[in-house]
């Protein structure tokens, strides 16, 4: 099962994330909360690669919502590939979309997910327009 992406989404980043023994729950598979961590790792590593740093002052990205669809169980040992896509920018936000698959079975999607990312003034706690450099990357 592949992530159904609208035509206006584009691929921006891939990252391999090791599955840790402690990621599993008593059922012997990766706990559902860890999938959100894998999505976060991909989103942050992509943004850090662009020079975007998280800071409690100034402007930067915050997640307004996040979702994950669990398709196939993942368990230790192994590594997951998290593939990241983005939507065209809005005034102050954009969407991220992700596919998670094992690196030893890259044709099988284990989960899909994403997040709405809003550019915000951290002190004022209000959205602000996306900076031009992000707008160019997302377009």
Q: What keyword list fits this structure?
A:
2 helices, 139 residues, Thiol Ester Dehydrase, Chain A, globular, alpha+beta, 6-stranded antiparallel β-sheet, single chain, 6 strands
Describe this structure in words.
- 18% of the residues lie in helices and 42% in strands.
- It has helices at 32-49, 132-138; strands at residues 10-18, 59-70, 79-86, 93-102, 105-121, 126-127.
- Strands 1, 2, 3, 4, 5 and 6 form a six-stranded antiparallel β-sheet that branches.
- The longest helix has 18 residues, at 32-49.
- The protein is globular, with a radius of gyration of 16 Å.
- The relative contact order is 0.24.
Alpha carbon gap, first and last residue = 27 Å
Number of helices: 2
**Name of the CATH superfamily:** Hotdog Thioesterase
Element pattern in H and E:
EHEEEEEH
**Structurally, how many domains make up the residues?**
1
Radius of gyration: 16 Å
CATH fold group: Thiol Ester Dehydrase, Chain A
Count of beta strands: 6
Tell me, what is the CATH class?
Answer: Alpha Beta
Structural class, by secondary structure, is alpha+beta
Main sheet record: 6 strands, antiparallel
Helix content: 10-25%
Write the layout of secondary structure elements.
Blueprint: E1 10-18, H1 32-49, E2 59-70, E3 79-86, E4 93-102, E5 105-121, E6 126-127, H2 132-138
Antiparallel strand pairs: 1-3, 2-5, 3-4, 4-5, 5-6
Q: Brief description of this entry?
A:
By secondary structure, the protein is of the alpha+beta class.
